[in-house]
Amino acid sequence: MRGRKSRRAKRQEFEQMQAPSIGGVSVPRGDGSTIVRVRRGSSLTDFADKINADPASLVTVLIHLGEMATATQSLDEDTFRLLGAELGYEIQVVSPEDEERELFSSFNIDLDAESAEEDDEDLQPRPPVVTVMGHVDHGKTRLLDAIRHAEVAEGEAGGITQHIGAYQIHTNHEDQDRAITFIDTPGHEAFTAMRARGAKVTDIAILVVAADDGVMPQTIEALNHAQAADVPIVVAVNKIDKPDANPQKIRQQLTEYNLIAEEYGGDTMFVDVSAREGQNIDQLLEAVLLTADAALDLRANPDKDARGVAIEANLDRGRGAVATVLVQSGTLRVGDGIVAGSAHGRVRAMLDEHGDNVQEAGPSRPVQVLGLASVPRAGDTFLVAPDDRTARQIAEKREAADRQASLAKARKRISLEDLTEALAAGKVETLNLILKGDVSGSVEALEDALLQIDVGDEVDLRIIDRGVGAITLNNINLAMASDAIIIGFNVRAEGQNADVADREGVEIRYYSVIYQAIEEIEAALKGMLKPEFEEVQLGTAEVREVFRSSKFGNVAGSIVRSGEIRRGTKARLVRDGTVVSEKLEISGLRRFKDDVTEVREGFECGINLGNFNDIKVGDVIETHELREKPRT
Ligand code: GDP
Fold this sequence. Notes:
Blueprint (H helix, E strand, L loop, with lengths): L1 H17 L2 E2 L2 E2 L7 E6 L4 H8 L3 H10 L12 H11 L1 E6 L1 H10 L7 H5 L6 E2 L3 E6 L5 H14 L12 E8 L2 E8 L3 H10 L7 E7 L6 H12 L4 E6 L8 H9 L14 E3 L8 H15 L3 E2 L6 E10 L3 E10 L2 E2 L3 E4 L2 E9 L5 E2 L1 E2 L4 E7 L8 E4 L3 H36 L5 E9 L2 H12 L7 E10 L4 H10 L1 E6 L5 H10 L3 E4 L2 H15 L3 E18 L3 E14 L3 E6 L2 E8 L2 E4 L2 E2 L2 E3 L3 E5 L11 E10 L3
The structure holds guanosine-5'-diphosphate (GDP).
The site of guanosine-5'-diphosphate has 15 residues, from α7.
């Protein structure tokens, strides 16, 4: 007997555990110590996946806890903790860095151990890595060119001939030959995208501000990013060759953002340059080195296996995957087995910015690496693996994790709709996009910028897939399946693929300028918003006399006081300042004996309001129409 009873009790307990009813919904429940790990930035849908629950129920539970969130919105740690406590789970939020660390430790590679153990004497000075940031058209590209050419002037054989996403120059500073590495990728978007993925590559930011234009929105954005990343800034006041250049004004404006020039008692170096004339480029390089020496301790151990970040990558027809990596510590050598993001391989050859083969690359050195089996993403970290097998396994695990993440994204779409129905909170329109680009830097930059477009809650933009290389049949199939538009950034759908897309009605849009892509997508999103209407008054007429007609009902003999009265428009009747009737219509309009379509201000007319006959002398008839409000 006792046995049976306790079994039943246990069963009851179990059932209660399984299905607590909170606000009328049931959610599988933990026992208080059940640990659930979610990635930083996860949503209720991600969490629901892990505990086998319905995301909509979790939304309801959260509402009962006094928090509002949609199923796909990313939640902060506190909200997860609150939800976990309610449902009996201990929720651990893991950062991408933690995940990396765990992944590697499962291969017996300790990402922290080495640097912690490093002796001071192992560390050697390394060149600063510089990113040029600033508002569009202020001269970032031109400045990077000018710096590149300064190097040629210094006598480097052949000059910098290859755009590999980064380059290194040498300059004489205090009688020493010093190197500086410049990241040469699409502006600060790439910087932001890399930073968002946890890769810190930049030591110093050069903030370019055009002296004839001043501080602009992206100037502020760039400096916010640099300051948030704790990266010292050198300001290049550009275009000083222009007659309307006002470099002092730039210094003045930037004081508001805590960038105070040295000459005003601050610690930020401002250098007036002309990228076009190649003027003061040396001084700018000087300022970068002075700032690096004063603010940073840039040292790394070159005598170990290399680690760093992929900053640019593309698929080359002849050479396969080509990735530019920045070595951050250790030395990378031809023949090393490496893993970069979900790509792995053996370094077959390395090329520098002069197009020359190099055998090894030490800290702060950017090199193009050939030999990876697939294309890594900008911002992916790379490291030399102990052996090929480990490299492949790490890459495979990362790829599986990526796939999982994009599957979760694809699922979100559906659950979002379910949720919306459940909450009956008006339908959310979704624009699905697939991004393809020539280099990973631009794909990341585009994705980052697109996700920042905000046209309100009614319309949602989702990037369901992204990648480097031509638009494939796979991309087109996915677009068909999920009603997505494909964005080709400097890449196309070729031959048969273009035909398939055409035949299946898959929209492919081609761009080569990021801003243009963003503008058009933003316009498309706005176009998806439901139209908003506003009432526009068309005219008023005062009733002077009421004629009774057996055929038409009452006719108001009126004079048009303002605007015009048009047949067929909506009207209301106002008596002594009070609306007597709404939703009327000008159903008949006459001048003398003729039917007319409109009567202008100052003219008399006969107005018929259909079945509505309660018209008195002195009444005012107002007409209006609804016009679509343009979105701003
Ligand atoms: P980015 O969008 O910041 O990369 O700007 P660009 O480098 O493409 O430069 C935008 C425009 O400004 C181009 O037409 C450049 O030729 C011009 N420009 C850049 N630097 C200078 C300069 O020092 N003086 C003058 N007069 N024009 C410049």
